[in-house]
Amino acid sequence: MEGKNKEYLIEQFRKINHAESMVLTQHSRKRFEERGIKVVDVIEIINIGEIIEQYPEDYPFPSCLILGRIEDRYIHVCASINEDLIYIITAYEPDVEKWNDDRKTRKELFK
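^ that's the sequence the OP posted. Answer follows.
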């Protein structure tokens, strides 16, 4: 994706969705380990999930928030794309204090 102020389609992620195309920082790897999230979980979330928020102003690339569910576990994946790489910013289980039951909509207090 080139330029700023762009919004992603989930298909853009799915097209290049494999472990070899993912870029994770040391920080994100540490957070994954703390949260019990694996790269295969992130791949699955991208395969089955949906984009619930767009962040077109993020730097250095626009990013988005993807929601998916594996068994009874909801996971949010924040990611961006540059060329043929998916940059994983973070992944976490949405906090029920901040998100409505659908895990797609932020509670009013946290908007």
